[in-house]
Structure formats: C-alpha cells, structure tokens
TrEMBL record:
Transmembrane segments: none
Record protein name field: FAD-dependent oxidoreductase
Domain FAD-dependent oxidoreductase 2 FAD-binding: 6-436
Organism from which the protein derives: Virgibacillus xinjiangensis
InterPro entries the UniProt entry points to: FAD-dep_OxRdtase_2_FAD-bd, FAD-oxidoreductase_2, FAD/NAD-bd_sf, Succ_DH/fumarate_Rdtase_cat_sf
Length: 458
C-alpha cells in the first residue's frame, strides 16, 4: 500500500487547487483521476468565477465588496443555503483570486451574469486554467498524479479515520494510505441515471451534458462512512442550451441577461427572465414542450461578446443556431410559432417596459443589475433553447473547514470534500461563477484543514 499524507480523488479545478496547495505546503500527495484527461466538468463550465473587489473591477471603476457578494449569494439561494459556508466564501474569495493569478490563471474580462448585482463574473479559459494548475502540481516532487485510476471504496483504520483508498490503475487493484485524510473532489452525479432517478425524477426531460465521469461514485463512497447530504430538494437543470448541445459542442446563449425575452411554443412569455438560470430551467420544464425560445432584437445583438461562452451571439448566428429575420412575422415562421402570438407578446412586453409594469415583474436584466429595453429594432433573432443537466449543485454536507459531516453535524474523521460534490452552498438558486469559485476556495481549505493549518484570510 502506497503511503501519502493526503489522497485527493478527482482532477477537476477543486482537485488541482487542492493538489497545488498541499504540494506547496510540503505534503506528500496522490491525486487520482478516473478519466484519461484532467479537468472534469470544469472544462465544460461557463468559464466564470465569482470574485469581488478585484483589481480588474477597480481598473474599470466598479465598486464591489465581499459583503455584497455574500448577500447576493444568500438572496439567490433563497436563504436556504448554509450561511456559514457562504460567509467563508466571502472571507476567502479575494485571497483565492490573487492566488489563482499568482499561479498563472488568466482572467480575461468581467461580465454581469446570473445572480450578480454588479458585474463580477470573471471569465477564464478553463482549459488554460486547468493546464496552468496541472503544470504547477506536476512540477512539485511531492505530488503524484495518476489518470485512468478510478477509486472504488474508502476504508478506515483502527483510529476510525478515513485513511485508505482503493482504486485501479491499468486495470490492476491498488491501495493507498492517507495519513492526514482523503479529499473528495470527484464531482456530482449529472450522468448517473440511478441517482437522478432517485433524487430528481422531475429532470428526466433535460439533456445530459455534464462531465462524463460525474456518476456519483464519490458520494456513494462517503455515504458508506456516514456522510449526510444537502440541497437535494433544489436539484435543477440549467437553462440556456441549444438542442445540439447533446452532441460534442455545448452551444448556449444567455441573451435574456442582455435583454431577450423567453417564450414557449405558443409564443407566450412564462417567466421573469432576470431570475437565476436554474429557476428559469424549473419554469421551462413546467411548460408542455421541451423547447422554448429566446427572442431579441438588434439592440441586444449588438451586445455580443466575441469569444464568450455565454454571450457570443455572432458566433452562434454564423453556425446557423440563431435564426434571423427582418420582422417578427418572418421570425415566427422560421421557428414555427404563431406570428400573431409573437407580435402580441412583444407588443405587451414593450408596453410593460414603457410603463414600468412588466407582467412578470421584470425590472432588471439579471438579479439587481441592468435595465430592460424594448424589442423594436430590426432585425430580430431567435434561439431555440432547452434545459440541460450540466451539474448537480447538491451533495455531501460539509462545514466551512470542508470537513464532511454526518447526519448529526459531526465531522467524519479524515474525510473532506470540495467542488461540485459538496452541498449546502448554493441552496435553491445559483449564482454564475460560484461553482468554480467554491471549487478553488474550498479545494485549498480542505487541504489546510487536513494538515491542521490556519485558514488563509484576506
């Protein structure tokens, strides 16, 4: 049995941040990734990280703070998320942003995205970020990284601490001893028909596009040792994906956060478009048909952001995924809905904007940011949209030290968790960028807790 101080299970953003932190702390580390490539669901994300008070915001004259970030997270989460976890995020987020910059992660721009009252969605190239962290981890002599190494079970020693990891490598059974504990960063269960069937049968109509390795094995392994779960009642899909996202390219557009409206196949609005796209997904799944449509005009189209995964509308237009027409009647014909219904809906929306009395209560673009505009300027655009199961955002109960908890709120000795596998953080909604943010923050926290270090604060 190989002997290490820490064993990290999962090689996405949380696992790599944990590996780099542990290696730089001088610990002997084994990181196990079951897939052939490092990265997991992190490379499929929207590529945003939620940080406040950064130098990028200051350079653009934006005023933001950790307290505002925390309040937004709690409000978006319906205040059923764990306040202590969210507070820890707020306390540690700026330090982690600077740590990522120091470790070669390139932050490219800032956008206003779901759940933010000020623009704080810091964009990254997720492949660049993963490779930068992987390069740092692989260069450390005390960090061992093994791919194609699925973990099957965890074991406890005589002290009762989780300190044994059983896995395969090249098809051969292996075992590792973790003196300081095991850090689970193995993702969620978006590709587990079994677990989704148990916990989220209401999501059976979603398209499945999460990381292929996200089948919930880490959660099951933690259950065996008494772990509790959080946020299961709030499992939701993600709104904004084109039907072709089931294929190799995960095309999506969030034009509604720039001013588009969302319609069902009867040509009618059914939701306040400024809500978290998890809540928009819930609303869309209550409609009779699987597909809905985002509708907008040239005013919104002019806000296309080149290279942005969520807002590069021009790229989607060139691919033929966005439909374009000179008037609403032609646009309705292109997408197969009633021209009269579309015209009536747009007219009513425009009148509501003018009067400040929107039928669905919309008075911002996203959360508390931005002002909606009327849909009047030709040409007009439509994007067929579905709800996708991208990430589960529910999982193991943890405390602010990233210790996995049992049903009585007590730590399971030697067991830590970070990233998508950890629940309790998002609650009933979702703020864009908080998933990658918490992965980086609590990946590092888990290591420091396991090694008995003081948690770094701003």
């Amino acid at each position: 049995m190989g002997e290490f101080e820490l064993v990290i299970v999962g090689g996405g953003l949380a696992g790599l941040c944990a590996a780099v932190e542990a290696g730089e702390q001088g610990a002997d580390v084994l990181l196990l990734e079951k897939e052939e490539d490092i990265g997991g669901s992190s490379v499929l994300s929207g590529r945003y990280m939620a940080f406040a008070g950064t130098n990028m915001q200051q350079d653009q004259g934006m005023e933001d703070s950790s307290s505002t970030l925390v309040e937004d997270m709690l409000e978006v989460g319906g205040r059923v998320n764990d306040e202590k976890l969210v507070a820890a995020y707020g306390e540690l987020q700026l330090d982690t942003y600077n740590w990522l910059v120091d470790h070669g992660i390139h932050f490219l721009s800032i956008q206003a995205v779901s759940g933010h009252s000020v623009p704080r969605g810091h964009t990254i190239d997720s492949h660049q970020a993963i490779q930068a962290l992987y390069g740092h981890a692989a260069a450390l002599p005390n960090v061992t990284i093994a791919v194609n190494s699925p973990v099957s079970r965890l074991g406890r020693g005589e002290t009762g601490q989780v300190d044994q990891v059983y896995y395969e490598q090249v098809g051969k059974p292996q075992a590792a001893y973790a003196d300081k504990g095991v850090v689970l960063t193995s993702g969620g269960f978006s590709h587990s028909k079994e677990l989704l069937g148990h916990f989220a049968p209401h999501l059976k109509r979603t398209i499945r596009i999460g990381g292929p390795g996200n089948k919930g094995e880490g959660i099951k392994m933690a259950w065996e040792h008494g772990a509790w779960m959080r946020d299961i009642p709030y499992l939701s899909g993600t709104y904004g994906f084109h039907p072709t996202a089931e294929g190799p390219e995960k095309s999506q557009a969030l034009a509604f956060y720039k001013g588009a409206i969302i319609l069902n196949q009867k040509g009618k609005r059914f939701v306040n478009e400024s809500l978290s796209y998890k809540l928009l997904g819930n609303a869309a799944l209550r409609e009779e048909e699987d597909s809905t449509y985002q509708i907008w005009d040239q005013t919104v189209m002019d806000q296309s952001v080149p290279g942005d995964k969520l807002y590069d509308f021009d790229k989607l237009l060139k691919k033929g995924l966005i439909k374009k027409a000179d008037n609403l009647q032609e646009l309705a014909a292109l997408i197969g809905i009633s021209p009269e219904a579309l015209q009536l809906t747009v007219t009513e929306y425009n009148e509501g904007i003018e009067k400040g009395e929107d039928a669905f209560g919309r008075n911002t673009l996203t959360h508390h940011f931005g002002e909606p505009t009327q849909i009047r300027t030709a040409p007009f655009y439509a994007f067929e949209t579905k709800v996708a199961m991208l990430a589960t955002y529910a999982g193991l109960s943890v405390n602010p030290r990233a210790e996995v908890l049992n049903p009585y709120g007590e730590p399971v000795p030697g067991l830590f968790a970070a990233g998508e596998i950890a629940g309790g953080f998002h609650g009933a909604g979702y703020m864009t960028g908080s998933s990658l943010g918490k992965a980086a923050i609590f990946g590092r926290v888990a290591v420091k807790s396991a090694l008995g270090k003081t948690l770094t604060k701003q």
